[in-house]
Amino acid sequence: MQFPLTEEHRLIQETARNFADNEIAPVADRHNREGSFPLELVKRLGELGFMGMLVPEQYGGTGLGNLPLVVALEEVNRVDASTGVTMSVQNSLVCAPIVHFANETLKQKYLPKLASGAFLGAYALSEPGSGSDAAGLVSSAVKDGDSYVLNGTKNFITTGAEADIVVAMVRTDPNHKTRGITAFILEKGWKGFSVGKKEEKLGLRSSSTVQLVFEDLRVPAANIVGELGLGFKIAMHTLDGGRIGIAAQAVGIAQACLDASVKYAEEREAFNQPIGRFQAVQFKLANMATKLEAARLLVYNAARLKDEGQPHGKEAAMAKLFASEMSNEAAREAVQIHGGAGYLEDFPVERYFRDARITEIYEGTSEIQRIVIARHLLKGLR
Questions:
Q1: What value, to the nearest 5°, has the Cα angle with vertex 358 and ends 124 and 116?
Q2: What fold does the segment set 233-381 form as a domain?
Q3: What average pLDDT does range 100-120 have in this prediction?
Q4: What is the mean pLDDT of the chain?
Q5: Which has the closest alpha carbon to 74: 283, 272, 297?
Q6: What are the angstrom distances between the C-alpha of 282 and each of 108, 224, 267, 293, 359?
Q7: Which of 46, 197, 280, 334 has its CA 20 to 30 A from that of 133?
Q8: What's the CATH architecture for 7-119?
Q9: Separation between Cα atoms, residue 374 and residue 381, nearest integer Å
Q10: Domain boundaries of the chain, sorted by first residue
Q11: Catalytic annotation on 363?
Q12: C-alpha 313, offset from chain centre
């Protein structure tokens, strides 16, 4: 079954595919081995309009929507998941909440630079003591005149080392759990803002993951996104979109696994014939292709619902859950089909295997996705 993409979607897909194959692919392995951030590629993504796909044209974006975004994300992640997650975070976790919740002044101030790629953004929710329990965050913001003074540490922040601005969730009322959290836009150059420990990771090695430290960081009250105490609602709304982006990443990685496996199965010979002639290998490829197609349809459908303004929380969670688990299965099978070669850095499936693992963890673990889905199903028990 083919999802009904328009001619515009196909053009976006082709543009993203050509950029991925011609500009990202030649340097992806080098950036991965060096652990170097692909800033030049990210800037080019901005020039092509891929960093502001959810930003309306009046603020310098393309305003194309979530379905075109996931189509493009799939192509970028097929070649390099590190570059892909930077693009996903910029669109889904940084631009989207500003578009949906910020006032006109903040939109005019930040969105044009984010959409063009002149500014990079990060999303700061997790803390050393709160990950899945997002409402358990303890970073604080205390009002002082027309500003707030922030203190605390944020953990596992993607693109945090390179970000020019950060959308951060901070506790403004210690007496309320979900209603005591507020979203702020922070700028990197402000006194009291610093980048802490850079994490050494299993995968996504050319995407930075860092701690952000706030020490008496003074933030203008004008930089509140939405309203005081609305931060948890903003965070959850934002993650619904972010999950669709990560699901698209998982699909892209799985497509890369399938492509590499088909190529290897046609070229590698054992017992005087290509290994693709063996039923054991054929069954692995058939399963990978079937589950990949199912995951892609889930992702596209969730993106379509979001674009249409329809409820999509359950569908986003289903897409994230199925696509991430499918991607990890595809990566395991790809390494298995490659045999000993798949364990070597000389072959790309080794990188795909490492990169796929995070998709079951960040922006909501598989366990959290199951909880979200179950709550939608069991509304009568609320």
A1: 50
A2: Butyryl-CoA Dehydrogenase, subunit A; domain 3 (1.20.140)
A3: 98
A4: 97
A5: 297
A6: 54, 55, 14, 17, 26
A7: 197
A8: Orthogonal Bundle (1.10)
A9: 11
A10: 7-119, 122-229, 233-381
A11: yes
A12: 16
